[in-house]
Specification:
The chain has 2 domains: about 100 residues, no CATH class; about 80 residues, 2-Layer Sandwich (Gyrase A, domain 2). Helices cover about 55% and strands about 10% of the residues. Helix 6 packs antiparallel against helix 7. It is elongated.
């Protein structure tokens, strides 16, 4: 294999990994389609702070304004932020019990599932892969205190391995390939 063909192979694999891990969307397109039928998902929760994902919030300013206005009026809520670009709902609060009740209300009344018809159309193998990727991303994020996610961890792994191969072992084709993969994966990486 020539250097140019190895570089192109590395570039195509990097692009494919970048597509799978997404440009800001942490899951493949089939997983995104599946998540659109998941009404409200707790993405990250700490005492006094919870972040949810709801696909119905994406590009839905009327619902976002309504939620921000009415959730902010609750006495135990300190702050509410809705991001209509990502479908993110951030709630800062005082009082776990009241927050649990609010979450139950949101799941039952605001983000109730309309139909499970489309969810059954996704093959079981694809669902399993999506669940594994999502779970692995959550584990990495949790264990690194949200400093890294699965995509950034893979990027840094490729980066360090590539630098080691180029500088220490003197390998040229595979080291730059891994550097290319790392750069390709980081292209859509957003800061936390």
């Amino acid at each position: 294999m020539s250097y140019a063909s190895g570089f192109m192979l590395g570039a195509s694999i990097g692009r494919a990994l970048h597509g799978v891990l997404g440009t800001g969307d942490m899951l493949p397109a089939i997983c995104q389609d599946r998540l659109q039928h998941r009404p409200l998902k707790l993405v990250h929760g700490l005492p006094g702070r919870r972040r949810y994902y709801a696909s119905r919030l994406i590009r839905n300013m009327p619902l976002a304004d309504l939620l921000e206005r009415y959730i902010a009026m609750m006495p135990f809520v300190r702050q509410v932020q809705v991001d209509v670009m990502t479908g993110s709902l951030l709630i800062l609060y005082d009082g776990e019990k009241q927050m649990e009740e609010l979450e139950i209300f949101l799941r039952a009344r605001v983000f109730a599932e309309v139909s499970k018809q489309k969810e059954n159309q996704i093959p079981r193998a694809s669902q399993a892969v999506c669940d594994i990727i999502s779970k692995a991303n959550g584990i990495v994020s949790c264990h690194t205190a949200n400093c890294f996610d699965l995509k950034s961890l893979l990027s840094f792994t490729f980066l360090f391995r590539g630098v080691r191969k180029v500088l220490v072992q003197g390998q040229r084709p595979s080291g730059p390939q891994m550097l290319w993969w790392a750069i390709s994966l980081m292209r859509g990486w957003r800061s936390l």
